[in-house]
Design goal:
This is Slp family lipoprotein. This protein has helices spanning 2-19, 39-44, 105-108; strands spanning 53-66, 69-77, 93-100, 112-127, 130-152, 161-164, 173-176, 189-195. The protein is mainly beta and 196 residues long. The strands form two sheets. It has a five-stranded mixed β-barrel. Strands 6-7 form a two-stranded antiparallel ribbon. A hairpin with an 8-residue loop joins strand 6 (161-164) and strand 7. It is elongated. The chain starts with a helix and ends with a strand.
């Protein structure tokens, strides 16, 4: 029971510390306080959202270079609070993101990205041989993410030393905590994350 309480406290402290570090990169902050991120809502009535700022992200599945711009076809995924696509989440739908200038397909194909820009409407296209209606975004900023793995060590005890005050039959104790030990014997876990 005591060990569970200490583990829960350590996880809460970690979450609070990491939560304070969360921020959206400047490249995809956009102009509005909260750009539209609900692609399903936009797909149901794209004409209602024309001119609105949106932020979407996911995996680039196709790159088409045109004169003066590059069109990214993105299989979108839900974004977390720092505008990163949630790894392992199912695709919500696809968008065409039009970026001014030339982007080499080698640099972004199969990469994770987040884009921010104005919704231009929708256009008919195809995925394989199936017809599909793509939401089109005129991109004002984008962020390419790097997929990295990090080793997550098991939670360690907060303090391996303990003080028990005196009781009627015991003078008190100061020393190593006999119930917790120094190290958690659980295995380290490898976690895949997105970084700038």
């Amino acid at each position: 029971m005591r060990k569970n309480l200490i583990n829960a406290s350590a996880m809460l402290l970690t979450a609070l510390l990491l939560g304070g570090c969360v921020s959206v990169p400047d490249s995809v902050k956009g102009r509005s306080a909260m750009p539209q991120q609900d692609l399903l809502r936009v797909m149901n009535a794209p004409q209602l959202y024309v001119g609105q700022e949106a932020r979407f992200g996911g995996k680039v599945v196709k790159v088409t270079n045109l004169n003066g711009r590059t069109r990214l076809e993105i299989a979108t995924q839900p974004l977390d609070e720092s505008a990163r696509p949630r790894l392992g989440a199912a695709s919500v739908g696809r968008i065409w993101a039009d970026v001014n200038g030339f982007i080499d397909p080698v640099d972004v194909t199969n990469q994770m990205v987040t884009v921010v820009g104005t919704i231009k409407g929708s256009e008919k296209g195809e995925i394989g041989k199936a017809s599909y209606t793509f939401v089109v975004v005129d991109v004002t900023g984008y962020q390419r993410w790097r997929v990295q793995q990090q080793v997550m060590m098991p939670t360690q005890p907060i303090d391996p030393w303990i003080w028990y005050g005196p009781t009627r039959h015991h003078p008190g104790y100061w020393g190593p905590n006999p119930w917790m030990g120094y190290y958690n014997s659980g295995p380290a876990q490898v976690q895949t994350i997105l970084t700038e």
